[in-house]
Design brief:
The protein is mostly helical.
Length: about 425
């Protein structure tokens, strides 16, 4: 099926303005930047809470990482029809408020000295559920806010600020852990979700009413419709398979990177913040050059050509040793982030372009279920095998797995396209 998303209604001269002058896009962009900064603070602080405050094992840290992504496997599919039936912006706002309360519970528990691993697991799991709904609604909402020919640019900008947030969030998170402790540093994430909710509240662009609002339809049939669209599309199917495998191996790194830096490379919290934050420069650069690279080589080619370098970059991470060579982790992650942002800027835009608007929620839910459903499995594999085989060998396995993942899109109809469809 190649039905495309229609351009926003009422095509006026104002609609042709640059995204830099689009008030509502800038509100969305700014709110997500703040939220992402907070989330990246939590990404570094949550495993450090487990390691430094609660003395967790490698497997327990892997289980904590799995808890944050398990909801994509459990609730992503039914979340799709829900998103298609409701307005996206209010749903996103309530998800932000819920995540704000959950994040705030960790420093509160730390103040009263009642923080446990069970609470960390519960917070990670419930926040993951809210993140599922937010993420599916978010990618389904963007096409109603910007024109179709602006999607690559918009996704590139959002991707670049995600990396900027990783840069500042990880660095700031490492400093906060050193100054006030890991548990109390999580308060910054709660504040960021509140800021994101405020920016969503201030957006004025009217959101079209969902076509399925008020309709009584069979949930199973709606889920199946979304899955059939994804699995039946020759390019989308290969994109999903490639990303799912890459996410599996990538989450092995995610589940082990803090353990690797703390216990094998003997890095202090502030060094971890600098290493993880410094690597985000690559993602920031990738987002800033996404539009330029897309024009030079083609937005469709931008999906698979840079991805050929994933394995080489991944091998730099297990090559690091205690001391100055710890910088190899940052270099490897920098290259990986450039590639990831270029890839996502185009593949997300491709998905948004080829999908009918009434299917966007279910398409994104189906894609997330498959792509992100492998992540808790990767986290569990990383935690378990990292304990028994070793952290460094598993990081090497992850890099080799990235090469295998790229083959799905290299040998697909995508190679025959230069650009993401715009019509």
């Amino acid at each position: 099926m190649t039905t495309t998303v229609p351009a926003p209604e009422q095509e006026t001269p104002a609609a042709a303005k640059s995204l830099w002058r689009d008030r509502d896009f800038l509100l969305l962009w700014g709110g997500q930047t703040i939220s992402e900064i907070g989330s990246n603070i939590m990404q570094i602080t949550l495993p450090l809470v487990a390691l430094l405050t609660l003395n967790a094992s490698t497997f327990e840290v892997g289980l904590l990482t799995a808890a944050t992504t398990l909801p994509f496997l459990l609730v992503a599919l039914p979340a799709g029809p829900v998103v298609d039936r409701v307005r996206k912006r209010p749903l996103m706002l309530w998800c932000d408020l819920g995540r704000m309360v959950l994040a705030a519970s960790i420093p509160v528990a730390a103040v009263f000295d009642v923080l446990t691993m069970v609470q960390l697991y519960v917070v990670a799991l419930v926040m993951g559920v809210l993140t599922v709904f937010f993420a599916i609604a978010y990618q389904s909402y963007l096409p109603s806010l910007v024109r179709k020919d602006q999607l690559v640019d918009a996704n590139g900008k959002l991707g670049s600020t995600q990396s900027f947030a990783q840069l500042t969030g990880a660095s700031f998170g490492g400093a906060l852990v050193t100054l006030i402790g890991a548990a109390r540093a999580v308060a910054a994430d709660a504040i960021s979700f509140g800021a994101s909710a405020l920016t969503l509240f201030l957006i004025r662009t009217p959101e079209p009413a969902p076509k399925q609002a008020g309709e009584k339809r069979n949930l199973r049939a709606e889920i199946a419709e979304g899955l059939r669209f994804v699995v039946g599309h020759p390019v989308l199917r290969k994109l999903v398979m490639s990303t799912a495998m890459s996410n599996f191996f990538g989450t092995i790194v995610l589940s082990l990177q803090t353990v690797y830096l703390v216990r094998e490379l003997k890095a202090e919290p502030w060094v971890i913040g600098l290493v993880m934050g410094g690597s985000a420069i690559g993602g920031l650069a990738g987002g800033l050059i996404a539009n330029w690279v897309g024009k030079k080589i083609g937005t469709a080619r931008m999906i698979w050509l840079p991805a050929l370098l994933l394995g080489w970059a991944g091998l730099l991470i297990p090559a690091a040793q205690p001391g100055w060579s710890t910088i190899l982790v940052a270099v490897g992650m920098t290259i990986l982030m450039v590639i990831f942002v270029l890839y996502n800027s185009s593949q997300v835009s491709y998905r948004q372009s080829i999908t009918p608007p009434e299917l966007l929620g279910r398409m994104n839910a189906s894609v997330r279920w498959i792509m992100w459903g492998t992540m808790p499995l990767g986290a569990l594999a990383g935690g378990a095998l990292g304990t028994y085989v070793g952290v460094r060998p598993m990081l090497t396995v992850s890099a080799l797995g990235d090469w295998l993942a790229v083959l799905f899109i290299v040998f697909s109809p995508l190679r025959k396209l230069r650009d993401v469809p715009k019509d």
